[in-house]
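Section 5: illustrative case.
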């Protein structure tokens, strides 16, 4: 498969986003006055994956260990720049007002950072003329051919691994121990901008040391999920706005 692409500066990709950021980018975003949320999700992890299970090893490298009741889990924390409507840096002429300091995910778009997610033009917000055959090739035989984009993807993947220990310390420092079940949704936590920046810096600059394995509550909006988790002695509850001081972003409808 070959994909051709050139940005048309339509601005469609700069609205209503939760942009995944590295810890370093999140601190810069907060320092410039932006808002960030922290997403947490837990993956049941009863056995270690085979060395050649690339997808499981990818998730393992980007997560830290925990327990939920008697269930071993791996916890993935994602820090996202959060905004509804246009990006705060999108100018009236649709140029980026923070172009030289924009996050890697913006520089990489429409390519994917996750190697297990296929880049599908139909799922992108770019107009049809951005993909016309006379545009430069972006993907050939499933591989990114633009060297700058490929390097940025490699950098983002490395940062995700490098930042795991920082995120684990951040959760411990803030006493955060609530997550969604992976692939069902996200638990989303928002802190005041100044507090979030202070705690990120504290975790980022802390001397590396082991963090004790912590106990996590898994929440879901689906009763069937909670019943299944409890049947294997996991600590799980149905999420409600009154019982948990976090937001829950569901991938599926409420109930079973």
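Designed sequence:
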């Amino acid at each position: 498969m070959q994909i051709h692409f050139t940005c048309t500066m339509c601005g469609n990709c700069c609205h209503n986003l939760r942009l995944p950021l590295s810890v370093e980018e999140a601190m810069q975003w907060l320092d410039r006055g932006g808002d960030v949320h922290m997403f947490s999700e837990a993956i049941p992890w009863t056995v270690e994956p085979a060395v050649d299970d690339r997808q499981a090893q990818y998730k393992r490298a980007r997560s830290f260990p925990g327990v939920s009741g008697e269930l071993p889990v791996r916890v993935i924390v994602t820090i996202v720049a959060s905004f509804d409507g246009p990006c705060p840096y999108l100018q009236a002429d649709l140029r980026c007002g923070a172009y030289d300091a924009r996050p890697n995910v913006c520089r990489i778009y429409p390519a994917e950072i996750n190697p297990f997610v296929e880049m599908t033009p139909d799922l992108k917000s770019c107009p049809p003329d951005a993909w016309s055959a006379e545009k430069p090739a972006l993907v050939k035989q499933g591989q990114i051919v633009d060297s700058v984009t490929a390097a940025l993807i490699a950098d983002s993947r490395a940062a995700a691994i490098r930042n795991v220990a920082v995120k684990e310390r951040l959760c411990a420092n803030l006493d955060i121990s609530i997550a969604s079940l992976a692939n069902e949704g996200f638990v989303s936590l928002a802190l005041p901008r100044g507090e979030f920046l202070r705690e990120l810096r504290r975790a980022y600059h802390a001397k590396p040391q082991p963090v004790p394995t912590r106990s996590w509550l898994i929440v879901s909006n689906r009763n069937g999920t909670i019943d299944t988790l409890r049947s294997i002695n996991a600590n799980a509850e149905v999420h409600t706005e009154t019982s948990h001081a976090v937001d829950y972003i569901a991938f599926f409808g409420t109930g079973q």
